[in-house]
Amino acid sequence: MNTSRAKALGAIIGIPVLVIAFTVAWAKNPPDLAHLFSAPTVCEKPLTYAIGSIDGRFGVGVVTLQEAVTAAEKLWENGTGFDLLSRDDNASLKINLVFDERQIKTIEEARFKAKLDQEHTLYQGLVAQYDTLVAVQEKRLDEYNASGALYDKRLTNYNTQVTHWNSAGGAPEKVYNEFAKERSDLERLQQELENERQELNQQNANINALTDKINMYASTFNKSVDSYNTTFTEEQFEQGQYTGTMINVFQFDDLSDLEIVLAHEFGHAFGIDHLSNPTAIMYYLMEKQDTERPELTAEDVAALRGVCRMENSTSRND
Ligand SMILES: [Zn+2]
Predict the structure, then answer these.
(1) How many A from CA of 231 to the centre of ligand 1?
(2) Coiled coil where (predicted)?
């Protein structure tokens, strides 16, 4: 009994061990399975997408989103030579614009930047005004000093002549009349110089007031810059995501930015993972890509050829 019981027991234990061994064997060979049931690659059959929901607070309509989607599509298709994407309003892959604090911050930052630009433009306008006023004032001051020196010379000469004729007991009528005229000319000149001196002083006061104003604007601007730098610090966050059935975009600065985010998420939808080249569309971070003239890098192209199971996946030409 003992033995047979022992034999029976041995048989019962043996079954789960076999089952476990069988499971492990399956898990170890997924490539064979994948190959047997593989769907056509995106290079063989374009991926279909539909425009999903767009939060109105983005200020972007369906037409504009479609333009950005088409640009992202062209980026991949022109870069690889494959027809990779096609719009189908019944497609299961939806493209959504999802509004949250990320885009709120983007909008706030854009507003703040516009305010900073405005403050800086005002400041620069005042500085330009100051430069013009100072240049005019310096020229006018030079002229005033030259006229003053000339006046002093004439006055000295007049006084010398008067002293001379006084010590000689008086001047003849003709000379006396000349002196009278010179004296009246000198008095007129002195009045003109005095008027100019007052005007110059007034203008100096104006320039000083303008300097105060400029300093005040500079101080306001600098405070705004400090405030901007504290409020909008560098931080990393998710701009977009591919969930398997959705491409959700959470944040973009402008339409060319949106285009690259979409191109990146399309890349994931094609089955491409992140690449290590920082300029690649499929780099995890949006930073070094050329947003003005976006292009696939050789790594992006090779990665697509990889998911399309093409040989020589590092070459663009086939
Ligand atoms: Zn990514």
Answers:
(1) 26
(2) 176-213
CA 13 to CA 217: how far, in whole Å? Answer: 87
d(CA 272, CA 266) in angstroms, rounded, equals 9
**Ligand 1 mean position to 146 CA, how many Å?**
74
For 67, other C-beta atoms within 10 Å of its C-beta total 15
pLDDT tens-digit map of 111-140: 999 999 999 999 999 999 999 999 999 999
- What letters, b where the CB count within 10 A reaches 16 and e where it falls short, cover 213-250? ebeebeeebeebeeeeeeeeeeeeeebbebeeebbbbb
- DSSP 8-class letter at 48: E
d(CA 62, CA 89): 12
Predicted confidence at residue 43, as pLDDT, reads 93
Extract the residue ranges of the chain whose pLDDT is less than 50. Answer: 1-34, 315-318
How confident is the model at residue 236, as a pLDDT?
A: 86
| d(CA 59, ligand 1 centre) in Å | 25
Centre of ligand 1 from the C-alpha of residue 113, in Å: 28
State how beta strands 47-54 and 93-97 pair. Answer: parallel
- What pLDDT is attached to residue 4? 29
In whole angstroms, what is the distance from residue 275 CA to residue 297 CA? 10
Expressed in angstroms and rounded, the spacing between residue 284 Cα and the centre of ligand 1 is 5
* CA 238 to centroid of ligand 1, rounded, Å: 9
